[in-house]
Amino acid sequence: MALLEVSHLDVRFALRQGEVRALRDVSFTLDRGERLGIVGESGAGKSVAAFTILNLIAKPGYIAGGSILFEGRDLTRLKPRALQNIRGNQISMIFQDPMMTLNPVLTVGEQMIECLKAHRRIRSREAREIALNKLRQVYIPSPEKRLDQYPHELSGGMRQRIIIAIALLLDPDIIVADEPTTALDVTIQAEIMSLLLELCEKHNVALILITHDLGVVSQVTQRTLVMYAGRVIEQGPTREIINDAQHPYTQGLINALPQMASPGSRLNQIPGAMPPLAKTPPGCAFHPRCGFSTDAAGQRRRDCREDVPAFVTSGNCHVACHMVRELVERDPVEPGEAS
């Protein structure tokens, strides 16, 4: 049994102008110690998926359907007290901006000790020793000094290391990292991702990494989900998706990487923009931007315009695309041929 199993998750926001579906039929699993990446443009639903796992969706948002099974328990049906025992204790989250996460009027040590006392019956001295140990694990220099400092006295990279240390305080089974390097410069980003990978491997912690950066995903994760307009449109082994993307949207994301353009030429880009969730087009949501959705006469294919594509297996990946389905049905892979 998978450590985490998300099945047919449907999240909606009840707005004055009508109900908006932020997640549509999202399903995936996560095994113990596995590293999973969720990628897509802004508005794809990545962060909503991350927040929903811990049931942190604020009103007017709500879970309209589906299940989130953690060690066999459905998190969508737990009472607040039971869910509070899981948050931070068994499933931790790293947010985008450490300055928004850390309390500016409490020292680092006060915040770490408070977190430990919220979940364990422990003395302050023992809690401080655990906090010091975690700071050492994330390579914070002079940890004794840092415990008595306030967040504003630390650099951005140092603050993010402290957030990671707090996430590891209670030895969780899963860490959900929501774009943990967004506010950092490139060199610090690489250090933080390398640290996160090292800690997950060392402690056998499962990781869900939310990002728009396919370069980071290729270096850190073992399996990848690609999201578009609230749906998962491709999922499979990270190496296979990076080397041989099947969905036109995934191909567009990879082609848009700076290293894919010739020196001195314009960067590649996907035409158009992600549709607003309130105005998601029928059929395949990507079809207005997809170069493969037009027929020989230049008209949009009817199935792309009208029918939501079902998942089809291509190699070791699952892809929701009418074009891929036709290719697979025309030239099926014999058993044993898929790598």
UniProtKB/TrEMBL annotation:
Residues 6-254 form the ABC transporter domain. It is a peripheral membrane protein. It is found in: Cell inner membrane. Signal peptide: none annotated. It catalyses: a dipeptide(out) + ATP + H2O = a dipeptide(in) + ADP + phosphate + H(+). One of its GO terms (cellular component) is plasma membrane. PROSITE patterns: ABC_TRANSPORTER_1, ABC_TRANSPORTER_2. Its EC number is 7.4.2.9. GO terms for biological process: peptide transport; transmembrane transport. It comes from the Bacteria. The keyword Membrane applies. Keywords: ATP-binding, Cell membrane, Membrane, Nucleotide-binding, Transport. GO terms for molecular function: ATP binding; ATP hydrolysis activity. Pfam families: ABC_tran, oligo_HPY. Belongs to the ABC transporter superfamily. This is ABC-type dipeptide transporter. It comes from Modicisalibacter muralis.
